[in-house]
Every structure is written in structure tokens, then in C-alpha cells.
Amino acid sequence: MKLENIPQLKHINANNFFLLAGPCAIEGEDMALRIAEKVVSITDKLEIPYVFKGSFKKANRSRIDSFTGIGDEKALKILRKVSETFKVPTVTDIHEVSDANIAAEYVDVLQIPAFLVRQTDLVVAAAKTGKTINLKKGQFMSPESMKHAATKVTECDNEQVMLTDRGTMFGYQDMIVDFRGIPTMREFAPTVLDVTHSLQQPNQSSGVTGGRPDMIETIARAGVVNKVDGLFIETHFDPANAKSDGANMLDLKHLEKLLSNLVAIRKVANQL
């Protein structure tokens, strides 16, 4: 994958990690623009290549009454507005084959959720759009097995593929990151560490996923030290009231300090 093939991606020659960051789900236009404006300001200052992240719908929910979205077209139009307003690329999840061509009209990167990364028809449909594809490693999969997921994309004549580790199931209600997987997956494609989802505590009896946001910097630092190519961080200005995944998101007010520390670590790691 070549970063320069992602439209509007800036700072690609800064020798930094790239960043996929934003809210878990698009809750409305004002919140999306507010978050994007802040993250763009920080990443421009630190020269971090930045892709705005926001799910246009949430299909994988614990409970039937969980928030799933504000409407597909409405959310996708907001993602387009973020891109046009701040001149940054955008990424969103897709869940069904029919989502691929629809979402590709609005965003620059299509993301395959971890639970769906073995769904061949979905991966192929995404690949055939010609967009950059982010494949999230299943919580139940080995790093080595992601080679086959990446191959499904490249055999569709699409070399724009990256892999994301988002933790591995550790019992019923916890995740763990095996950092041995980073160099393994980097052999197949540029590799991203999903910091916030790696700290989820799923399958709670309440039906609401928990998390450990206090460990975000710990996991992110370890990823940067191990020369991960990119970081994935969900962030919100009011995580407690976010409509999805608030329990493991980073409060937006802490993002600049975190990224500043990580950029400093990256500079040292680049010298090793």
C-alpha cells in the first residue's frame, strides 16, 4: 500500500505513524465537524498523516435497542462534508456487500470490521471499488491468518490494503494485544494498531461493552515502540454520553498530549 494513493492525505513524508481517528459512530453533523476540526489541528501541528474515522452505521451491537445510526445516507453525507471542509480523507466500516459501492461514493477508505474479515464476498466487494481497504484482524484470528485476508484484496488487482490489530479474545470479557503480531502482519501489509478497541471489555451482562481507557497511552506507546505503521483511536469530546463505545474511547481533550508523546517516541524508534 502507498500512502500517497489515499486522496488528500497530508504529511506523508514526515516519517511519522499515520492516524485513523474520530468518533465510533456519526451521531450528527455538528459533533463530527467539531471532532474533525480538533484532530486536524493537532495532526497538522505534529505532522501526522490523518484519516477521519466515523461509522455511518453500527451493525454489530450487543442489544437490539443499541444505537445503530442516524440514517445511512445522512451519515455518509456528513463524512463527505468532513472531507470537503477539512481536506482530509475519511474511513468508514461496511457490513454488507451492498454497502461497498454505496460507501465508496462518499469515503476514501473502506474498513472491514473484525467479526466480518473472513467474509470473502464482503472483502472482495470492497476491494473491487478500488478504494484503500482496512482489514481488521478478527479477535479470534492469528496474525498469520491475516495474510489470506490481504490476498483476497490484492487478487482483485487492488494493492491498497492495510491490516489492523484490535486485540485478541482473552476469556469471555477481555482483550489482549499480542505485540508479536505486529511484525508478522507487517510482512503482508502496512499494519495499524487499534488502541481503543483493544481495550474493550465485551460481553458484559448489561449488554453494554466496557473498556479501559486509562490504558490507552500504555498500549499506544507499545505499538509505536514496535514500529507499527499506523494507529487507530476513537475519540469524542464527551465519551460518557457517546452513543457507541463510549466506555473505551479517548476524551478528545487528552488527544494532543497523547499524540505529542507518541511522536517523540516515534522519533527515537526511527533511530533504532
UniProtKB/TrEMBL annotation:
Q: Where do the DAHP synthetase I/KDSA domain residues begin and end?
A: 15-263
| Keywords for this protein | Cytoplasm, Transferase
Q: Name one GO biological process term.
A: lipopolysaccharide biosynthetic process
Pathway connected to this protein: Carbohydrate biosynthesis; 3-deoxy-D-manno-octulosonate biosynthesis; 3-deoxy-D-manno-octulosonate from D-ribulose 5-phosphate: step 2/3; Bacterial outer membrane biogenesis; lipopolysaccharide biosynthesis
Q: Name one GO cellular component term.
A: cytoplasm
Q: List the catalytic activities from the record.
A: D-arabinose 5-phosphate + phosphoenolpyruvate + H2O = 3-deoxy-alpha-D-manno-2-octulosonate-8-phosphate + phosphate
The top EC class, named as a word, is transferase
Q: Would I find Cytoplasm among this entry's keywords?
A: yes
Classification via Pfam families: DAHP_synth_1
Q: Where in the cell is it found?
A: Cytoplasm
Q: Which domain of life is it from?
A: Bacteria
The UniProt family comment states:
Belongs to the KdsA family.
- Cross-referenced PANTHER family: PHOSPHO-2-DEHYDRO-3-DEOXYHEPTONATE ALDOLASE (PTHR21057)
Question: Under which name does UniProt file this protein?
Answer: 3-deoxy-8-phosphooctulonate synthase
Native source organism of the sequence: Salegentibacter echinorum
The organism's lineage is: Bacteria, Pseudomonadati, Bacteroidota, Flavobacteriia, Flavobacteriales
